[in-house]
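User: Sequence in, structure out. Go.
Assistant: Echoing your sequence, followed by the structure tokens.
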Amino acid sequence: MKRIGFVTSSELRGLTPDDRSVVPVLAERGIEVVPVVWTEPLPGRLDAFVLRSTWDYHLQLPAFLTWV
């Protein structure tokens, strides 16, 4: 199974409603969606990232740019 990290902020660690709506669709295709809070350690091996709701990036721009 492939694992895709949906990158988010700590306030949205459970993902947005839009993000959650795609989880079952991707699961049917053998893809697991993993929330990734960009200010925290990565949750294991991931095959790809999708930048989604990193709404706090501007508060720590240098750190965010390094992370990206």
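User: And one key feature?
Assistant: Helices lie at 17-28, 61-67.
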